[in-house]
């Protein structure tokens, strides 16, 4: 079964990975892929949008003779992640309640 995933949920997943550590695009894609079906071609516009909103910054580091672009979450990105996480918990609780026949999830 597939559910439509909105941009807010995708943003939350990207920011959640970056809260833990800086990472480069391919690694970030692989980590997000663990929870949702996403391609690199989908992820890079999300990264650019989050960077434009100043939730992320980038820096390059040499790796095997090439530069690898790393993404780092900013203070405003952490705030946005916390907002999205709170919204997710509330949304999940409501969905769980409906799916469980009106029972409150624990």
Task: Describe the protein's architecture and organization.
- With 106 residues, the protein is of the alpha+beta class.
- Helices cover 58% and strands 17% of the residues.
- The chain has a three-stranded antiparallel β-sheet with strand order 1-3-2.
- Helix 1 (7-20) packs across helix 4.
- The mean pLDDT is 89.
- InterPro entries: Metal_resp_DNA-bind_regulator (IPR052509), Tscrpt_reg_PadR_N (IPR005149), WH-like_DNA-bd_sf (IPR036388), WH_DNA-bd_sf (IPR036390).
- Residues 14-82 form the Transcription regulator PadR N-terminal domain.
- This is PadR family transcriptional regulator.
What fraction, in percent, of the residue positions are helical? 55-70%
According to DSSP, the number of beta strands is: 3
Q: Under the CATH scheme, which class?
A: Mainly Alpha
Q: What topology, given as strand order, has the largest sheet? A: 1-3-2
Structural class: alpha+beta
N- to C-terminal separation?
Answer: 24 Å
What is the total domain count? 1
Overall pLDDT score: 89
Task: Please give the structural blueprint.
Elements: H1 7-20, E1 23-24, H2 25-33, H3 40-52, E2 56-63, E3 66-73, H4 75-99
Antiparallel strand pairs: 1-3, 2-3
Helix pairs in contact: 1-4
